[in-house]
Amino acid sequence: MKKFITLILLLVSLHVVAQEKIPVTEADYGNNSIEMADRMRADGKIYVLVGIIGIIFTGITVYLVSTERKIAKIEKTISTQK
Fold first, then answer.
1. Which member of 19, 24, 44, 76 has the lowest number of beta carbons within 10 Å of its beta carbon?
2. How far apart are CA 62 and CA 15, in angstroms?
């Protein structure tokens, strides 16, 4: 039964289209300005965005380092008990 459901889901997923294709025009290649970034830079909000991204990146890095240290400590404890 599990294989049958997997097969049905696989066949259904083959017919699903993720997104429609939009043709790329010559005007798209010549567009060098990003309006959102220009507006945020003019309002001074781009620095807030960069700061938030930096805080998130720092938080993820601290979390990964602390997790690695905990894992190393547990591995050391397990290896000394054997």
1. 19
2. 43
